[in-house]
Amino acid sequence: MAHDHHHDHENDRHAHDHTHMDFARMIPMLEQEAELFSPRYGEAAAWLRDQRSETGLIVDAGSGPGVISCLLADTFPAARVVAVDEVEPLLERARARADRLGVGDRFSTLRAELGEGLGDLEYPADLLWASRSLHHVGDQRAVLAGFARALAPGGTLALMEGGLPTRYFPRDIGIGRPGLQSRIDAVHDEWFGRMRDELPGSVRETEDWPALLTAVGLRHTATRTFLVDLPAPVSDETRAFVVTSLTHRRDALAPRLDADDLATLDRLLDPDDKASVHHRPDVFLLAAHTLHVAVKPE
């Protein structure tokens, strides 16, 4: 889940009507994205491990299908991991993944809505990871305060929010008007603002994440951006992800897109069109995800 004023939600499980989503249908895309970006998530996890090697309980708040939860279990081999999400089919996938990867004996799931707290954790977390989930809750400051309460003294909150919009193509792709992705981003930012406004209990916040972390009593210690850089020519897996991602964004934003841009998108997604993502040699994937780290005073 994602971001600041440059929200990149084509990979986001909430990119349709926020109140009517078929999460089970979106599981393949969620797994596809997390697996493709796993090297960067692994880099982020290793960076966190270097800062605090002693970790007893890790909580992944808004875990989705558990790809990152299992990666955290692998990075911290002595830790127990709890994946928290509100959607049971996603938690089922997380448990199955943990068993398949051999970490099921120290892996559990908890069904809870982030806006209502983290449910019944057995004991406070040493590391709480929240990747692109916070912005789907109306009162983000209240949720951060709940995260802070769930941390043990000296515990770490790792909040992945912010970064840059993902890019897949050059500015001029030879069909349609140049600058297609920038215009799609502008439409998406308007959509995102409406989505935030319509969330239950929505509170507008300046998206200064270090300041918000400080406001709930944590000590901001670091911010770092992790780059996903998959240059052309891309692998079949990356190309398939770009198709899935653009299809998701097209479906979500079609009513608000310019007719010419929508026609260009349809060409890009048509497997019979030689100018499509399915065949283009210039497709790449470039993304930047920002991680903010804060510690609870002892």
Description:
This protein is an alpha/beta fold and 298 residues long. It is 39% helix and 21% strand. The protein contains nine helices and seven strands, in the order ααβαβαββαβααβααβ. It has a seven-stranded mixed sheet. α5 links the parallel β4 and β5. The longest helix is centred in the middle third of the chain and has 19 residues.
Keywords:
single chain; 298 residues; alpha/beta
Percent strand? 15-25%
Gap between N and C termini: 30 Å
Q: How are the strands of the biggest sheet laid out side by side?
A: 3-2-1-4-5-7-6
Q: Structural class of the helices, strands and pairings?
A: alpha/beta
Number of strands: 7
How many H/I helices? Answer: 9
H/E element string?
A: HHEHEHEEHEHHEHHE
Low-confidence stretches: 1-20
Q: How would a crystallographer describe the biggest sheet?
A: 7 strands, mixed
- What is the share of helical residues? 25-40%
The whole-angstrom Rg is 19 Å
Give the averaged pLDDT, no decimals: 91
Topology:
Elements lengths: L22 H14 L1 H14 L5 E5 L5 H9 L4 E6 L2 H13 L6 E5 L13 E7 L8 H11 E17 L12 H19 L10 H7 L3 E12 L5 H18 L5 H10 L16 E11 L3
Helix pairs in contact: 1-8, 2-3
